[in-house]
Amino acid sequence: MTSTATSLLYTTMMHRGGLSTISYRRPTDASWPPPPEHESSEDARIRVELEREARRVNDEINRAIDRERIERKRKKPDVKIMLLGQAESGKSTTLKNFQLNFAPNVFRAEAEAWRLVIHLNLVRSVNYIVDLLTVPARPQPPESGKKSTSRPGSANGNPPTLSTELRRLKLSLGPLKNIEAVLSRRLTAEPYATSSAPCILADSVNFGTPTASVPCYPLFSELGVRVRSNSDWKRNRGQQEFDTKRQQRELEDAHNIIAACGSDINALWRNRDVQSLLKRNGVSSQDQSGFFLPEALRVTAKDYIPSNEDVLRARLSTIGVEEHRLRMEHGQETGQEWIMYDCGGARSQRVAWAQFFDDINAIIFLAPASGFNETLSEDPSVNRLDDTMQLWRSVCSNRLLGSVEIMLFLNKMDVLREKLRHGTRFSQYVPTFNDENGKKNDIDSVSRYLFTTFLTMHKLCAPEPSRKVYLHRTCVIDQRATSKVLNHVREVLVLGHLSESSLI
Ligand SMILES: Nc1nc2c(ncn2[C@@H]2O[C@H](COP(=O)(O)OP(=O)(O)OP(=O)(O)O)[C@@H](O)[C@H]2O)c(=O)[nH]1
Ligand SMILES: [Mg+2]
């Protein structure tokens, strides 16, 4: 292309969002631009040649722009979903379900990597119990009308007196302290601080208006593995050739020691004194994250490969915002890429969320229904349900999120069911819920109440109150039930996406 032709054609050139948009004056027909008066036949020949060249360049540019647009469209992820909710609400577990459902091959390929996390979950539980057997308890705050007691072991603040068997187990499981550090370092590649003996003083908590002081269900959050979770650690597992020989040996030794400790871990968990000690600390297996003690023999076996359910139950808290690309492996959307943002939900992590808000199609908000009588690990003065409601309010009222699809997962329904079944009164913590003297202290009434509360808040503070909110009761460690929910999510998002791109 000649420089004359170039200057003739281009008037402006701008770049918008990385895509070049070029405007120019078209030499469309013989009348424009009009040929100069008294043009010699030689000048006319040059002009026509220049115009022909300009048209050729113009067509070439148009074709390049079209190619780029098609390419960008092909590469562009079809759906971007953000998972929001407080820490331990089930965001990462929901992400695992997405992988399991829509990219099962990738999920299975990563299952082995989760063995390390599961072993770390298990070892931390063991070390927690060993600590309970060792450290004198801090006194528990007095409940209303009750005498103050000590936890965990003895009422006098001294270490509990141990049976011979427990002394033996404590000794034989001692090396697991070091194993915890090895596994944790292996996952995070960060300096590691060992867990200290937990003693959470759960004061009475309220949701909404303050009520009379009630005993709070104690948290056992120290069992959670507080390590950085990012896609790298999974890749690392499959790339052990990059480890030094020493690191590989260290990890092999750790697995051998865990395998050798299997039957003692099982004996510790089944020990009657330990069971009552845990009970006194409000620890029950069904509501604890990453709790693998009851399966100690199975998960410590040398040839253990985590099942899907194990992976869903493994606990690894998220730090920051992780981007996961999910390539659909089956169905109509095969080959399409979905982007999922999995966020750390602890209070200190939430500032990072907003920068992703203007570029997403949907939010899945995880609200753990079981949190009504629990407090935040990061701030034991805050009730978990109260915190979830505040968070929901700020998500609903955010203008940047005004046009995104919102799905609300009322999660941990299994834990809620168990709590209610064991007689915990929801109304004791949520005074605005009328349980008609305990007659309505059931899962249907409570979840209906919660849905109504969430929807009312959305109506009150959403920029577009008529926006539809999709509601689901979930237990995201239940793979089959969650699969149905996710298929519904997929339908909504794919149809929503199609209508947005005006294909339907
Ligand atoms: N019983 C039960 N456990 C669940 C459920 N959903 C999640 N969990 C468990 O709760 C723990 C925490 O879940 P995560 O998905 O890691 O929570 P998160 O929201 O990603 O937490 P952060 O990363 O800290 O923000 C995991 O061990 C899960 O297996 C549920 O519906 N029922
Ligand atoms: Mg997470």
UniProtKB/TrEMBL annotation:
Annotated binding of Mg(2+), by residue: T318
Residue ranges with Polar residues bias: 150-163
Superkingdom of the organism of origin: Eukaryota
SMART domains: G_alpha
Residues holding GTP: L312, R313, A314, R315, L316, S317, T318, N411, K412, M413, D414
PROSITE patterns (alphabetical): G_ALPHA
One Gene Ontology biological process: adenylate cyclase-modulating G protein-coupled receptor signaling pathway
Family annotation (InterPro entries): Gprotein_alpha_su (IPR001019), GproteinA_insert (IPR011025), P-loop_NTPase (IPR027417)
GO cellular component, one term: cytoplasm
Region annotated Disordered, chain positions: 25-44, 137-163
Keyword annotations: GTP-binding, Magnesium, Metal-binding, Nucleotide-binding, Transducer
One term of GO molecular function: GTPase activity
Name of this chain's protein: G-alpha-domain-containing protein
